[in-house]
Every structure is written in structure tokens, then in C-alpha cells.
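Weekly sync notes, structure subgroup
Attendees: PM, AL, DS (notes)

Item 1: joint prediction request from the bench team. They want all two components modeled as one assembly rather than separately. Inputs as received:
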Amino acid sequence: MIKKEELDTVLAKYHLKFTKERREALTRKAKLPDLEDIASYLIDELNISPSNIEKCVSILYRNPENVKRNYEFLAQKELYNYNIETCLHILETPADDLPDTYHYVVCNYGIDFLNKNTSILKVPISRIQEIKDRLGSYLSPSQILDASLSSRTVDELSDILLVCIKNRIPITPKIFDRTANEIERIIQLCKKYGLEITGSVFRKSENGIMDMIKLCEEHNVKIVNSMFACPNDSLEELIMICKKSNIDLSGMVFRTNAEKIEEILDICEEQALEVKLTMFSANPEDMRRIIRICNKMHTPVVESMFSKTPEEVQKIIELCQEHKIKNITGSFFKRTRDELADAFEMCDKLHLKKEGAIFYRTAQEIYDIVQFCNTNHIKLENTMFHRSLPELQDIIRVCQKRRIPLSGSVYDSDSKDLDRIITILKRAHAPFSSIAIRKSPEEVEGIIQVCQRNSVEIFSSAFARSPFEVKKIIDICKEHSIPITGSCFQRKPNELEEIIEYCESTHQKLKASMLSSTKDEIKDIQTICKEKGVTPFESMYKRSYEEVEEIIELCQKESIKITGSCFRKKTKVFIEIVKTCNELGIIPKGEVFKRDPEEIRAITRIYQEKLNTLPTNNSFNKKPDEVEKIITVCLDNSIPVTGTVFNKKASELQDSIDFLKKEFGSSLCTPNIIIYDKEHLRKVCHYLEGKKYLEILKKSPSILKLSLEEIVEREAYLKTDEINEPMVVGESFHPVFGLSRKNFAEKKKKLEEKYMKNRW
Amino acid sequence: MDLDRLKEIYGESILYDFKDNIDDIVDNMNYLISRGFKNVDDVFEINPYLFLSSQDMIEEKLDQLMATLGVDYIEKLENDYSLWGD
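Output from the run, pasted for the record:
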């Protein structure tokens, strides 16, 4: 028995804070020298955060030698340190048993499994084996481990499984907290009140669920999954705060308490952080420490940091800085520091950029996904890393079966929803849309129904809105006699209405590009244009008012002609482009603003290496690797590298060249001919060859701007008795082949009228 | 506009180019209208790549054509698209 004062002194020394009940447990169960020994070992020697020890008070009354032996064993293994530090109770396992369990789990389930279910190390092998032998055919490997971790006997587990299978209930870890009878009663209750039966509902007892239903009815609040994890007495308080602070009543809010929410809201206000639901799972004190670390390390605060301890955040930032990562985004905090270090190593090995969703996966998973793509000749997309390999394989199978092109966005949905959405779109004769994949199948169906009921075309952009919003937008457009196009769905209904009213009050026509901004942004941009004497360009509305002003001022200072192209990129990039152009001797204008400074440098380098000149403005139409390919295609085929060739892809140019060479030799391979589609060339060139006009085509290739049907139609016009002129005049095609479509139609009409008149 | 015909003549990729450069296309159409062109749709159908360029390039090209064709260059260009060159 430890004296209270002695305990307080030791706890204060190690900055450990416990509730009264836990302190009492410590005074009863711990021995002071052992407690000090363990605290000193964990905090001073291993540098483990006190907050991790606070979550596992029992470690302080265990045998220090046992704890140390276990840690030393695990430290040499492949298990991530972070998992040991956040799962300290595994160190309480008898030191003779832990190595056996470790080897058994690693051999049978793999190290990744162990990293995800580290607590399993406290379970004896015999129990895991028995569950596997008796229930293995009903459970997945991870479910075997979940079941092993529960306190149920194998017979009880067997009864639970029978109820789950009979009622098609997902087997989640929490289900093992209830007996088979309790599960059956909860299922009946959920069915009675129309609640979706997910793993979460089994977090509460039958009575607990009943009380929660009453409470939600009283406050007119919809029941969400996370409420089941929240004690009913806290639930009411949380509902009141959320209503008062306008917080969405879903997700993480019910996994915390009212006091914490209020503190987190204060922190967000102080730091001007946007309130995100995931933040509510964080400890406010840790949040403040994380913000201090970020300020000290000149790193912007991102929401996902709050799912980590401050120490871990610091280690991750240090690792990123070591790897010279400039933009430290949320995805870097999806994994532990050690996992991230492994993933970085893998990225270097596979020459992958360290960015985006890649860090949602472990190093091994990254390797497996890349290997899979290489083997199956599938383009690797960053969004793929949102999914595990089996999930990806399912999605790809669905896309191939349904003939949907594999693009980055298809990996945003799971394969079952993707399949359902494709079917819904197909039945409605709606085009496949990557935006639709981000919605649930029910929402997609709802949007289609609204469009169909209102006889409105189903635009892809409509899927960015809810069915209710789509209906509202259609009504607004009808009310103001605005044609309903895809752009109308870019904005929320109230924003669209404001823009329309602004345009009406200022007597200007609503342009599609304006819908990239809000009414206030449009107004500000137009005001600044007026002040600076500049015509508003379409691309301006994609920038903020401040950016527009800054770019205009820079153009005026640097004598750059202000055109729409100047507003393609953000101000920072625009300034860098101008600097780079000045440095390289390129005039900052036109297509050059389509590229980043690095790309401009790369294209200039390619031009100098291959052609020993500065790049033409048109070459900036394409990215550096494509520019290099186009130049190579031209040089390999002795075709001059003019600006025209950069309107097409290298592969398309090569196709046209191969066709022309094979059918007519290389004389037709000129920049003004190879830019047309191979099939079009096949039809027109064979037609002109039959008439022996291929030589004329070389000198007068603009006839290729007409389809074969149009050429034949104009030729027939020339052959009429009233005209009777040859197809070729001198060394060019007859001027009739140069008429615009409208002018030719008029000429033809006149001729027909004349013919009809003469006939009568 | 007859996008199917443009796809047939220049290949499918031109439709993606239109989608990626829609702001430039609208700006360029407005620019041609501001210079006095009446049948901008027609010019677009016979010269789509022109509209995918930046406005500087179009302005440069029109200035050159104006110098060669004379003051009535717009009428001439709207009547005979071969004058636009390749």
C-alpha cells in the first residue's frame, strides 16, 4: 500500500495525471519502487508520452522486469514502435508467453495484421488456436483475432456467430461485448424503430438504445451511428451544444464530451481553424501542444494531426523536413512516423512522388499496388492509394466489365456502389460521370428522377449537388428564364439566385464562367477591372479578387499584355512564370501561362538540346514529356517542328504519319497534313488520289478542313451546268472549297432557286 | 456547332482540348466579336485550333492578316477560310 502523498509526488515528477479512482487503485495495487522503476523506464528511457501511460494505468503495478523484457523483445521485431507505445498493456503479458504469441500471429497472419491488431499479443496462443479451429470457417483472419481479444468463452462466441449469420449482421469487434440473447433483442428493437443494424448498435444495451431513441425523439434529432458509442447522459448535453454552435449532429461529436467540445471550439476560434468533425476525437490539451509545435516548426496545422499525439506529430514533421517535403498535407499524418519512414523509402525505391493519398497505405501495400499496375499495364493513379489492393482489383474488374475508362476518380467509390451507379446512369441514358461516383447510389437515383420529372438534360455537374438542390436550381433557372446548362449546377441554389439577380440589376448577361465565383467575388473582380481599365476575362472568375488585382498590377509593371491566359494560374505561380521567362529569354505571353515554371525550364532545355533554339509559344500547349515525344516524332520522320504540331499528341501524329507513309510515301508528311485524324486522312486522301490531286493537296492542304461528304458536295456544285468549273484552279483547289459553311450554303441555295426559276 | 464533324476531322482528342480550354475559347470568341467578326461560330468550325490558342496569338495573327489583306480583312476572312492559312 502506497501513501497518498508519496504517490502524488511520484506522479507529479513524471507529469502523470489520473482520476481519483485510478489513484486509489494505484495506492492499493502498486509498489512504490516498482512504480517509479516502470515510470522512469517508460518516460525517461523510452521517451513514451505520459498520456499513453495515463490510458493504461495497470502497467504501473506490474513487474518492472517483465515489462522491460517484453519491450526489449518487441523493440527488435518488425512491430512499429508507435503501436507498442499506444498499446502499453501488451507489455503486461507474461514475458514467457509474449514471444510465442508474436511468432504465431506473424507466421499465421503476417506482420501487417499484427500492426493493426497489436493488442492480440496479450492473448495466449491456445485461445487463438481454439477459436480458429472451432469457428475459423465462419470468421475472417482479422475476425478470429477480434474474437480472441474478447472476454467471451468459445461456446459463447459460437452462439453469437449463429445469431449474426442468421440475421446477416456484420461481425465487428464490438459485437462480442454482447451475449447472443442480447444481440437478438437489440436486432428486434432496431427493426421495430427502423434503425440500420450496424456494428455500432451493439455498443449499447437494449435499455440504453431505448433511452437514446426517446431522447432523440424529444429533441427532434436523427439517430446517427456514433450516438451508440456515447453514454446517454452525455448525449443530451452534446445535442444542446451542437445545436447552439451549429455543428452537424453526426460523426465524432458523440465520441467525446461537452466540456471537450467547448474547449475544442475555443481553440478553433483562437487559431482561426475550420471546425471539422474529426477534431472532436482529439484531446484539447494535445491540440494546443500540436499547434505550438507547428508554429515552432513553421508548418501549417492540418486536421489529421489531431488524431496523433504531439510527440508523434513532431516526429512526422521532422521526418518530412528531413526529406525536404515542402507541402506537409494531412495525408502524412494518416500513418505513424515509423510507417511513414518505410513508405518514404518505398517511394524512393519505386520513384514515386511523396504526395497525396499514397500515405494511406503501408510500404508493402504501396509496393503491391505498383506491382499490380505494372503487371496488368494499368496506369498508376494517386487516388488508387485510397483503396486496398483487393478493393482496387474489384473496382477495376467492374470498370472493365462495364466498359468504363479507368481514371483517377473511379477509385473514389467502392466496387459495389460503382456497379450500382453505372447501372442507374445506364438505365437513365445518362452519361457516365466521375462526379456521380462520389455520391451514394440513392442520391444519384434521386438527382436523375428530379431531372427527368422536370424534362431537364442530366448534366454531370448536377451530381455535385443533392436532389433537393438540383430541383431548386431548375426552379430558379425557369423563373429567371435562364437556359439550364451544366454550369448552373456549379453553385448552390442561393448562390446561383444571387448571381442571376446581380446580373439582372447590372444589365449584364450571365456567363457560364461567372458561376465559378460567388456574387460578391464577381462584383469585386468587375470593380477592380473597372478601376484598372481592364476588360474582364472568363478565367478571372476562377481567381480571387486579390489575385486578379495582383496579376493586373504585375502585368502593368512588367508591360505584359493582359489577356485571359494571365489568370490561368495562381498569383504565386504567375510571378514565378514571369521571372522564369525573363531569365530564359522567353516572352511571357500566350501559351506559356499554361505551364509551371519547372515545365517551362524543361521545355526550353528540350528545345535547346534537340533543336538548338528557344521554344515556340505553341510548344507550351503540351507538357515537357509530350513536347519531347512530338519533337522526336518530327525529327525521326524529317518533318519540320512548327507550332501546328503541338496541337496534337505525339501518338496521334505518329499514327497519321505511319498511315500516310504506308499508303502514299513520305511526301504528304507535312505539319499541316499530319495534324488531321488518320481515318479522315484515309478517306480524303484516297478520294483525291483517285482524282490525281495529291500533288495539289501538298500545296493546298486546307481542303482537309472539310469532311469528305462536304468535299463531294462542293465538287457536285462546281459540276452543275450553271457553274461548270474545274475542281482545281492553277496549283490550288477551287475557291469554293475555301468558303465558310454558311457562305457555301447561301451560294447553293441561290443556285437551287435559280434552277427552280429556270425550270418553271 | 457540329462537334461530331470536328471529331471526325481532327480526332476525338480535340473535344478534350475544348473541354480543357473552354475559358480561352469563350474569351477568344468575345475577342473576335469585339474586332467585328459576325460569324464567329463559322470561323470556329473551320479553324478550331485558332480558338485553343491564347488571345495574344490570335491578336498577332489577325494583325498580320489585316496587314496583308487590307481594311476589309474581316469580310475576306469570313468568306474564304483558306486565307486564314494553316
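Discussion: The first helix of chain B runs from residue 3 to 10.
Action: AL to compare against the crosslinking data before next sync.
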